Amino acid sequence: MLFGRTTPVMVTADQALPGRAAPVLTPEAAGAHTVLGTPLFDHPEGMAVADFALGCFWGAERKFWQLPAGVWTTLVGYQGGFTENPTYEEVCSGLTGHTETVRVVYDPDVLSYEALLKTFWESHDPTQGYRQGNDVGTQYRSAVFTHTPEQAAAAEASRAAYQRVLTEAGYGTVTTEIEPAAAHPFYPAELYHQQYLSDAKNPNGYCGIGGTGLSCPVGVAPAPDAS
């Protein structure tokens, strides 16, 4: 939280920490996914990439690697802020502007982006602003970083559809940001954060994310133009 305030405030570019040129995790040091056994950085031709921020990335990453089919690999990192190659401590200070993000590499012939969006929306409360449950800070905000115009359109349509579901259930306005990934580089997090809640690392570890219990429609098309 910026400057120790009890209410999180988003850092500006001129306030943000400078970071560093070298990444905190390199492909050479990353090894294989501790659950899926696949490389964290390299993937076969034809795979697609999706980036989601939905609170603490430990539990969020697990939501995606547990999908029954189609996920090649997952890794966690920092995205959406200003600091180059930040550390976890820097992100938690609120002085980088980054979210805690999960990168999902998936086979679009097996798993649709809309299905990933459904997992994203149903795994957290996207109306909480700069927090998820007891986790408070700008790094815990909800965001989708899109890699194609098709992803952007699907994300926007699903946000509108889920907003209708949430509104009917008495929830407030969805605060989820939808931004192009090209404008927000993804910086992989330190190795000990990768697959943090796997059985090989911390099977009983802390997970602070939780959904609303409300189902998100899948494959919702944008409303037709009434003009």
TrEMBL record:
Pfam families according to UniProt: PMSR
TM spans (from-to): none
Record domain Peptide methionine sulphoxide reductase MsrA: where: 51-207
InterPro entries: Met_Sox_Rdtase_MsrA_dom, Met_Sox_Rdtase_MsrA_sf, MsrA_MetSO_reductase
Catalytic function, reaction form: [thioredoxin]-disulfide + L-methionine + H2O = L-methionine (S)-S-oxide + [thioredoxin]-dithiol; L-methionyl-[protein] + [thioredoxin]-disulfide + H2O = L-methionyl-(S)-S-oxide-[protein] + [thioredoxin]-dithiol
Residues annotated as the enzyme's active site: C56
Name of the top EC class for this enzyme: oxidoreductase
GO molecular function terms listed in the Swiss-Prot or TrEMBL record: peptide-methionine (S)-S-oxide reductase activity
Biological role: Has an important function as a repair enzyme for proteins that have been inactivated by oxidation. Catalyzes the reversible oxidation-reduction of methionine sulfoxide in proteins to methionine.
Name this polypeptide is given: Peptide methionine sulfoxide reductase MsrA
Species in which this protein is naturally found: Streptomyces fragilis
Gene: msrA
